[in-house]
Amino acid sequence: MSKYAYPAIFTPEKDGGYSILFPDLDGCCTCGDDMADALIMAEDALALILYGYESDKRPIPVPSKASELPLKTGEFVNYIACDTLSYRKMYNNKSVKKTLTLPEWLNEAAVEAGINFSQVLQEALKARLSLG
To answer: Is 126 left (phi over 0), alpha (psi -120 to 50) or beta?
Structure first.
């Protein structure tokens, strides 16, 4: 899980929209109705495909240099950034049940104090993994 930036080729369309292609990532393409929409869609497409690479434990391709990408007339390159950890938090937030073991005296003290075990475990894991 990490932050990435990849070059994307933007192709203006006749209707004012844009087609977007990430040449370093097979099958990673999208489109947008205007520039603002195109940038949002490009970030989402990039995060989704890289999330898939990470989940499948596939190697993440090295981004090309924008200056080395072949362009057709009217096309331009823009770097798109994404954060797959933020993407995971947003779209992969299903709860998973875990069984744990702790000393009885600690369990009794925590129950008496009204501690939410799930919340404490989540906070501890985020701190340990530096995921804030």
So the answer is: alpha
pLDDT of 131 above 90:
no
Q: Determine the 3-state secondary structure of 101 from DSSP.
A: coil
The C-alpha angle with vertex 121 and arms to 128 and 2, in degrees rounded to 5, equals 45
Of 57, 53, 58, the C-alpha closest to 82 is 53
| Phi and psi torsions of 86, nearest 5° | -60, -40
47 close to 31: Cβ distance less than 8 angstroms: no
Tokens at 7, concatenated: 């070059």
| 71-130 per-position pLDDT tens digit | 999 999 999 999 999 888 887 777 888 888 989 999 899 989 999 988 898 899 889 988
| d(C-alpha 47, C-alpha 28), whole Å | 10
Residues 6+ apart with CB under 8 A from 24: 6, 7, 61, 62, 63, 64
> What residue type is assigned to position 29 of the chain?
C
